[in-house]
Design goal:
heterodimer, A: mainly beta, four-stranded antiparallel beta sheet, 11 strands, 50% strand, B: mainly beta, six-stranded mixed beta sheet, five-stranded antiparallel beta sheet, 54% strand
């Protein structure tokens, strides 16, 4: 049973460039959430996708956008990269099931460095 | 005010001792509470979750929740050097799997 798969593992980009990160959720999960984790900080919620739509969004600018595909996989796109976007980007999958949630399964993350 | 607050540590305990990790949250409407462990350079992994006031035990781990005081804790009994990691407290306020994370407490278990 595959867990959450993220690609690439590491990425170095130049300021102003655009980047796309990819995530395949755990088998059986239908919801994908993206988090940004700066060094020494806890993960910060970017947005969440369910049924191919953005269901919730955190306090991130419009430069951050995403997509979910029919097979539940997801992409995170960041435009006009800033140095401050350097962080570990975590994809978390879960199963939406009524009035309870049982936590995320996280992928191993993508380490983005903006130079 | 942050949604979830944790002491950054480091918290140092000797091997075999009980480690006590604490977390407070700001929204009284919060419904579920999670503890994750994160080793350096790795992604968070779920340890346990708790919904109701009181204690919940799972092996060497016990989560404690006090909604009146807006306080969650994690006790690790018989601490091992392999427990050395950063422990993240996460709080969920609604049914949509959106979590607010604390900054984590770094735990060092000394042999």
């Amino acid at each position: 049973d595959a867990g959450v798969t993220q690609s690439p593992t590491h990425l170095i980009k130049t300021r102003g460039q655009q980047v796309t990160l990819r995530c395949s959720p755990k088998s059986g999960h239908d919801t994908v959430s993206w988090y940004q984790q700066a060094l020494g900080q806890g993960p910060q919620f970017i947005f969440q996708y369910y049924e191919e739509e953005e269901r919730q969004r955190g306090n991130f600018p419009d430069r951050f956008s995403g997509h979910q595909f029919p097979n539940y996989s997801s992409e995170l796109n960041v435009n006009a990269l800033l140095l401050g976007d350097s962080a570990l980007y975590l994809c978390a999958s879960s199963l939406s099931q009524g009035d309870r949630n049982y936590g995320y399964t996280f992928g191993s993350g993508t380490r983005l460095t903006v130079v | 005010q942050k949604e979830v607050e944790q002491n950054s540590g480091p918290l140092s305990v000797p091997e075999g001792a009980i480690a006590s990790l604490n977390c407070t949250y700001s929204d009284r409407g919060s419904q579920s509470f999670f503890w994750y462990r994160q080793y350096s350079g790795k992604s968070p992994e779920l340890i346990m979750f708790i919904y109701s006031n009181g204690d919940k035990e799972d092996g060497r781990f016990t989560a404690q929740l006090n909604k009146a005081s807006q306080y969650v804790s994690l006790l690790i009994r018989d601490s091992q050097p392999s427990d050395s990691a950063t422990y993240l407290c996460a709080v969920n306020r609604d049914n949509f799997n959106k979590f607010y994370f604390g900054s984590g407490t770094k735990l060092n278990v000394k042999p």
